[in-house]
Amino acid sequence: MTKNIGIILGSTRPSRISPSIAEWLQKNMAQPDLQIDFIDLATIDLPFLDESEQPSTGIYHQAHTQVWSQLVQEYDGFVLLFPQYNWGYPAPLKNALDYLYKEWAHKPVSMVSYGGHGGFQAAQGMALVIRGLKMQLLTNNLQISLRKDDLDDRGQFIDPDTALAPYAFNAQQLGAEFSHVLTK
């Protein structure tokens, strides 16, 4: 039975490189029993949390929250893909996570952070959020260090496959871990 994994693109910045990383991840995580899709927060475009009820109640008054809840419920697990901004994760990602509660619970999740030093500090902070949402953090989490030589003058990858090649084994292991965890 096919399981659905959503790669949540946590950056909405116009010059972001997360779409290139997401495409590379999708290809390198591929497993016969996984359907891997992109969930782009730039196109989801949630306003800052505007629900009057606590997310833990599951009572959603706003149509955008109801749509977001339904979308998240369609997935069996998630990859949170995000850059490190000033030692933290992007606000749109935290906002999207905060909109919901029980929809996240017990679902496997992996973090793929990136930045000049791999996004280590952002991943540490996000690990606390994941724990608070009762998600199941997988053992394979990538921290991608960006090298200036791999980026063009607009900050985009010259060749994503070459730049991300050192992380290919870890991405394959991540796909295998999702496959294993979701067949238990």
From TrEMBL:
Domain of life, per UniProt, equals: Bacteria
State the InterPro entries in the record. Flavoprotein-like_sf, FMN_Rdtase-like_dom, NAD(P)H-dep_reductase
User: Which residue numbers delimit the NADPH-dependent FMN reductase-like domain?
Assistant: 4-140
Which PANTHER family does this UniProt record tie to the protein? CHROMATE REDUCTASE, NAD(P)H-DEPENDENT FMN REDUCTASE LOT6
Protein name, UniProt field: NAD(P)H-dependent oxidoreductase
Q: Which organism is it from?
A: Levilactobacillus tujiorum
